[in-house]
């Protein structure tokens, strides 16, 4: 896919890419397929289940009907892709779902289809193949210009798709194990283990629900971000538990000149009821790849334990773009290095061709109703000389410092804002407006469109060998 040149090409690209990094599953249905050869009849199994989803399906099948073997040794890449390809015929006839029974299902990358549900049984485990031949290499994303961690392309995701709409990946807390040694979308009720890179990564997408996900990655592993909405609109992330070696939620929108040219922001994002553990990164990070812009992010009811920072904004000269209209409330934090951190010197450029005059705009950053304890530094807020970060508001924030906390709890340069009811006393660039008053750093009262999506109860019974 070429880099964006004209709006027509840009539209095609926007419609064509959706990447889900190590995600998984939802389904069960019923369709029988008999062999034409006489063979001993194996006893059939019956499963009944129900789940909540944006769409229910009219047709169902089990992976075993397409030759799937759940022994943890046999490759199921072909079985998954054959099943999905055949079930795609029902896209205009009520859609279809693929049920993954109990077992260990070794597989390489496979691609989903529209109007489709992938469902994992509670005792089903998807195991990512260690055979590189089962992982196609893709061109870099056009808003990045190169692979995020290597100059060339990128390996495809375990569960992948392009130009999709109405896709559900869920289960009864089934597991996707990345074995990390090496449209309308719903992702819910899954456990994701040991991803070698970003876990859930929707790109150039809209109307996304990520719900009830458990993500567990070794805390020593870099770049194992939990959930990364990237140039996406109308996204809801809720009721998730994330243990990670990197940011639990990282909001992105392209890298340097490539993200600026592509020009597709992440906006209308809801994050709620998140529990995060990340000793070396943030509960919520905005950037550093934010060159297409980030706007209208609403985070609430966040718990972070032994996490480096609660909310972090990462940007630099050359990024361009903006981070604005950010609202955070009701955070409960235990053992932090920083509660709030903003960095205007976060380097690591895509290449040497970035615009040295592309200054990011950081404005309208609101934090309220925050309680933290055992904190080393209250905040480190560092903007860009002659291009300060503005409109910072903190209200009703109580930060309990650790016994070995830094003597200077606040570091502030090139920022502007106000505070009300904040302890310890903020830096001079955030003047105190007096005791906390109701309404400070207001959180929006309106609902975003993703909050008005109707969730249905889907009930299925499936018979399979």
UniProtKB/TrEMBL annotation:
Whether Hydrolase counts among this entry's keywords is: yes
Source domain of life is Eukaryota
The record's annotation in Pfam families points to: Glyco_hydro_28
Question: Which is a GO BP term held by this UniProt record?
Answer: carbohydrate metabolic process
**Keyword Secreted belongs to the record:** yes
Q: Which UniProt keywords apply?
A: Cell wall, Glycosidase, Hydrolase, Secreted
Coarse class of the protein's main subcellular location:
secreted
Task: Report the locations given in the UniProt record.
Answer: Secreted, Cell wall
Molecular function terms, GO-annotated: polygalacturonase activity
Family note = Belongs to the glycosyl hydrolase 28 family.
Indicate what this protein is called per its UniProt record.
Polygalacturonase
Instruction: Report the source organism.
Output: Rubus argutus (Southern blackberry)
